């Protein structure tokens, strides 16, 4: 299976070092605040698990799952929530934790939905960011790495539900040299 992946665009050590840096920024910024981290399933489950273990503050953890939009809904940015959060976030500081920001449509939608629930703030923490494929402006306050417009897998990210468990981020061989992001 690993033969299908061009290994290690980002090694597990690089990811770990950057995650620790991001967690210390978050620790510094959210001291004394009610912090709720919300992971966007499924892709963010690995990053969120590693990130929160380095945040040295009391915090709550929840998850949201969204269906990816089909081709016809991309431009409208309509994303369906298929698993909502369980926690009451009113008055709390939400940190949305994403694996990767591509067009930005998923996060734009989620930020809008969560803002309606009366949180004190909503910010975004994403391990990976593909600025060249962005369609809507998103302020990613905590950003791990900028990537070119490649389709990447591993560290939570899948291709047809495979490769999520790889400890590094890699590019599928069939996508090497391609600009396809989906
Ligand atoms: P956006 O709404 O920003 O276009 O897309 C965000 C979601 O698209 C991510 O949470 C992820 O599920 C998926 N995605 C975007 N780029 C990639 C990629 O390079 N690899 C994988 N596996 N998923 C991606």
TrEMBL record:
Top enzyme class: transferase
Cofactors demanded by this protein: Mg(2+)
Keywords of this entry: Cytoplasm, Glycosyltransferase, Magnesium, Metal-binding, Nucleotide-binding, Purine salvage, Transferase
UniProt record similarity statement: Belongs to the purine/pyrimidine phosphoribosyltransferase family.
Protein name: Hypoxanthine phosphoribosyltransferase
Catalytic activity: GMP + diphosphate = guanine + 5-phospho-alpha-D-ribose 1-diphosphate; IMP + diphosphate = hypoxanthine + 5-phospho-alpha-D-ribose 1-diphosphate
Pathway field: Purine metabolism; GMP biosynthesis via salvage pathway; GMP from guanine: step 1/1; Purine metabolism; IMP biosynthesis via salvage pathway; IMP from hypoxanthine: step 1/1
One GO process term, biological-process aspect: purine ribonucleoside salvage
Record InterPro entries: HGPRT, Hxn_phspho_trans, PRTase-like, PRTase_dom
Phosphoribosyltransferase domain segment(s): 10-158
GO cellular component: cytosol
Enzyme Commission number(s) of this protein: 2.4.2.8
GO MF annotations in UniProt: guanine phosphoribosyltransferase activity; hypoxanthine phosphoribosyltransferase activity; magnesium ion binding; nucleotide binding
CDD domains per UniProt: PRTases_typeI (cd06223)
Lineage, opening ranks: Bacteria, Bacillati, Actinomycetota, Candidatus Geothermincolia, Candidatus Geothermincolales
Coiled coil: none
Species annotation: Candidatus Solincola sediminis
Annotated PANTHER family: HYPOXANTHINE PHOSPHORIBOSYLTRANSFERASE, HYPOXANTHINE-GUANINE PHOSPHORIBOSYLTRANSFERASE
